[in-house]
Model the fold of this input.
Amino acid sequence: MGRKWNNIKEKKASKDANTSRIYAKFGREIYVAARQGEPDPTSNQALKVVLERAKTYSVPKHIIDKAIEKAKGGSEESFDELRYEGFGPSGSMVIVDALTNNVNRTASDVRAAFGKNGGNMGVSGSVAYMFDATAVIGLEGKTADDVLEILMEADVDARDILEEEDTVIVYADPDQFHAVQEALRASGVTDFTVAELTMLAQNDIALDADAQAQFEKMIDAIEDLEDVQQVYHNVDLGE
Done:
């Protein structure tokens, strides 16, 4: 599972050149989560998850506050949560999560991003069965053995705990997302390097240089779409 963290690190590092796009996507996601219940993370678990993710991406407070205030203000703007599945070069598989106020536009845009870059859209369920919904929490300042002991004492289950350089990565079932963080906070952890609810491929594939270049171009095209929030895939992009 170490490759998974490498890809997350790469994604987080690459955001530096696209902060305005990243922040806009978080603003939309925070607004939608805040409208799903009370606009308060203490009682709205969906909002709490988004805000924890936003913190690891250093989303400014004013963007978070603006999105929550918009939800509190009774805005009539609404978004549909959509998931698309598709295939890229050489058997690569992709899942795309979107928030949109125009389903037809988003479907057309995502289909075009696949089709113009050597991929094609699949039907619902054609790809998702090869991925597992997973909570991923990263932290520094402790060893994998430390974290294992903390979680065992708190009676919190984890699928795997790995140590990569100075970072410990915890993989757990999605319903353990908050429990893992609370147990670690109780032990003195104050910040997380990653806090994601993601879709991890059960098996990764490697592409040759040409196919990987085409695949990365396709992923960039999909991620650049305004309505796309998250993209998951089964390609090992390496370091």
